[in-house]
Design brief:
This protein is α/β, with parallel strands linked by helices. The chain contains 26 helices and 16 strands. The protein folds into four domains: 19-145, no CATH class; 173-341, no CATH class; 349-596, no CATH class; 611-732, Alpha-Beta Plaits (2-Layer Sandwich).
Length: 734
């Protein structure tokens, strides 16, 4: 070791890192001391209600991710510290100091949580986040700091359907059904909001009554012996204007409501059962299963991390009143508890394994059918015999064709275990092998079988033959489909193959059902899914480019077509090691929030494309031309500058055709999919003439050597903004 010398700059850097770590640890220590001192000073539910309301505030006009200092984990943290103590029945400070105490608790809890997160990153962050270690670390960070790994409305809808076949078993064991839990979970926030709104209305009414008392004294100088205010207060208030008096009375009663918010924010089993329309017995059993009292944890139990008690018991209870410090935890707490029970019964576990697999396949088939506008035939649960050994039977979950692309889908219903959520390397590796590697190997086996001969014969469970011919397909897409909401992990699994799972340059689309349903909601045309998968792979080939989760990739695709070349080139010129794309899912989250709030037509993040190209793609989609898929992908792949140039040309010749009814054409040469391509567009009244002219022109241009490939397509629609694509061709220089 003596021969190892450190550069003075490296020593300075290391010293700086150590100082930062020490400072962060000290801030966390200081904040925790403040929290331990301040939290017992206020009635427990009053304090937790104020903290919880603050951290759940959201602009209902438009969703914003983690606005300002408001995060669910802060109210959880304060609740967990309170759970280490006996319930505090009385506030120990004057009412006028309560607001400052709540603010101090909020600020210190926010700082403590962030400090712990930074410390964790310094201590445990993997050098290569695309490795198993990197994925294990992010899994733990997600479990610690993310509360909605999928859209809540999708989660409860999936649960309702998934567990229905074993509802009798669940009811017998727990005393409630999953449908009951969905109704109760959906009702909790409604109940609390109703109670808060009623309290606000009452405070406003009390303020009116108090102001009237002041105005009466101003006119009569008499004090109502049954009134709210003494004469000295009435005299002081009457020194102000009527407007100021109303404001002061309103502020007084609103502050009074907030100081005593625990009575408003907490609820009884009877209140929840009544609003939900669920029996009191089922409601009480639900609350008993998912609640904990005071003290609920030991002094040394974690208050930040993936295994806090609120994960499985997210509701607090005291004196038959209940309080929810973090509503997302309630949304996601039920299913792990139910599946823990299922594991105790081997027969039930075997049955449920089949149920999960069938549910995942059927739901995926439904979503793919929606994406492709009912234009596909999906074959499920096929089997085939090995070409070299006819006694060996292999299976594949789903296959379908769209134009000249064949999709091969392998579905995995495996759950992420608690050990993996805690960042354990071995368990994470096992899950990656189960969810990614095994499904990929199975898909590759199916793909090789199809490619090996002129006709690949598959059989349904009824022994009906389904034959696929490799000559019918130009592209193949392998899909590894997961039931778990793993959208934050899928962008870490790169086509650069750090995991060593992928072969022959074939990279699968690894997708969660929770993300597939969002994609189905947002892709307007079938071809967009193919192009999204292509652009996604291009993004994941660049290790320097980072994005948080799958829906960020979708958002960037919808808004910018995932066109990152300029950003990437600039980063490489500046020798930047990593470019982290900012969170881009607010528009998607807002769509589902507005829909949940009852909007009939919530704003949706639409695919950003010129109307002319959108109309052209729609015409190509319904055309019968042979190579429409290739044409559409090339149009979608045009760089922004090339697309703008081509659009200008097309608009010009469409206007000319609309005016004179004669044949017109235009062309561009550009770089697409790594090669120089020429694109010609012709418009005119005669299909036969267009076909001949298109062939002659494209052949001539190709022979000039301007491009390796020349594509052309022709349109007979005379209206400026409509298309009727009647002919196309693709010519290549071999």
């Amino acid at each position: 070791m003596d021969d190892i010398k450190l550069d003075p700059g490296e020593l300075d850097h290391q010293a700086t890192i150590e100082k930062i770590k020490k400072d962060i640890a000290q801030r966390a220590k200081d904040s925790l001391e403040v929290l331990e001192e301040k939290i017992p000073l206020m009635e427990t539910f009053d304090l937790l209600s104020n903290i919880t309301v603050h951290n759940h505030l959201q602009n209902i006009e438009h969703y914003e991710d983690a606005p300002e200092d408001r995060v669910f984990m802060v109210s959880e943290l304060v609740a967990l510290i309170a759970l280490k103590h006996q319930y505090q029945d009385k506030t120990q400070i004057p009412d006028v100091e309560a607001g400052n105490l709540v603010r101090e608790v909020q600020d210190n809890a926010f700082q403590y949580f962030n400090s712990e997160g930074f410390s964790d990153m310094f201590e445990n962050h993997a050098g290569d986040q695309h490795s198993v270690a990197g994925i294990a670390f992010k899994t733990r960070r997600e479990e610690t700091a993310v509360r909605n790994p999928g859209m809540p409305e999708h989660h409860v809808a999936f649960s309702t359907e998934l567990y229905q076949p074993i509802e009798t078993n669940i009811t017998q064991h727990f005393g409630f059904t999953v449908r009951d839990t969905v109704q109760l979970r959906n009702t909790l926030s409604k109940l609390v909001n109703q109670k808060i709104n009623a309290a606000k209305d009452n405070a406003a009414q009390q303020a009116i009554t108090m102001a009237a008392e002041v105005f009466k004294y101003r006119a009569s100088k008499t004090v109502d012996p049954e009134g709210m205010l003494d004469e000295q207060t009435l005299i002081e208030l009457n020194q102000d204007s009527r407007k100021k008096i109303k404001e002061q009375c309103y502020n007084y009663w609103m502050n009074d409501m907030m100081y005593n918010l625990g009575k408003v924010y907490s609820f009884t089993a009877e209140e929840l059962a009544g609003l939900a329309g669920i029996s009191l017995s089922a409601t009480e059993k639900f609350l008993a299963q998912f609640s904990t009292g005071f003290p609920g944890i030991e002094k040394g139990d974690p208050i930040v991390g993936p295994n806090i008690i609120l994960r499985k018991k997210p509701i607090l209870v005291h004196a038959d009143r209940y309080l929810v410090p973090s509503f997302p935890l309630v949304t996601w707490a039920v299913e792990p508890v139910i599946e823990d029970y299922i594991k105790t019964n081997q027969k039930l576990q075997d049955k449920f394994k089949t149920i999960k697999h069938n549910f995942l396949q059927d739901k995926a088939a439904e979503l793919f059918t929606a994406i492709f506008k009912n234009g596909i035939t999906i074959h499920q649960n096929l089997f085939y015999h090995d070409r070299d050994d006819s006694t060996k039977r292999n299976e594949t979950d789903m296959i379908f064709a769209y134009d000249r692309t064949l999709f091969i889908i392998e579905a995995k219903g495996n759950r992420i275990t608690q050990a993996a959520k805690e960042g354990k390397y071995a368990r994470t590796e096992k899950h990656l092998e189960d969810i990614v590697k095994d499904s990929y190997d199975q898909g590759m086996r199916t793909l090789d079988f199809i490619k090996q001969g002129p006709g690949a014969v598959f059989y349904t469970k009824n022994n009906k033959e389904i034959i696929f011919h490799s000559k019918d397909y130009d592209e193949y897409v392998l899909v590894s489909l997961s039931l778990e909401p793993i959208g934050s992990l899928t962008p870490l699994i790169r086509s650069t193959n750090e995991l060593g799972y992928f072969k022959k340059g074939i990279f699968p689309w690894i997708i969660s059902l929770y993300d597939l349903i969002v994609i189905a909601d947002h892709l307007e045309m079938p071809i967009l899914l193919l192009h999204y998968i292509i652009r996604r792979k291009q993004f994941l080939e660049k290790k320097e480019m980072e994005v948080y989760d799958e829906l960020d990739l979708l958002s960037y695709y919808l808004s910018k077509r995932l066109y990152i070349q300029n950003i990437y080139n600039e980063a490489m010129e500046k020798e930047v090691n990593m470019v982290h794309m900012a969170n881009a899912t607010d528009e998607i989250n807002n769509f589902y929030m507005q829909r949940a709030l009852g909007s009939a037509n919530p704003p949706k993040l639409a695919f950003n494309i010129q109307p002319l190209f959108k109309s052209m793609l729609a015409a190509l989609e319904i055309s019968g031309i042979y190579n429409k898929q290739e044409l559409m992908l090339i149009l979608l792949e045009l760089s922004p500058s090339a697309a703008e140039k081509f659009r200008t040309y097309i608009e010009k010749i469409k206007s000319s055709y609309a005016a004179d009814g004669k044949k017109h054409d235009c062309a561009i040469v550009t770089q697409v999919f790594g090669q120089r391509i020429g694109i010609s567009f012709m418009t005119g009244p005669d299909k036969n003439e267009l076909e001949l002219s298109l062939f002659q022109y494209c052949s001539y241009k190709l022979n000039q050597g301007e491009a390796k490939k020349w594509i052309g397509f022709a349109d007979t629609e005379r209206a400026k903004n409509k298309f009727a694509i009647v002919s196309s061709l693709v010519l290549k220089n071999e």
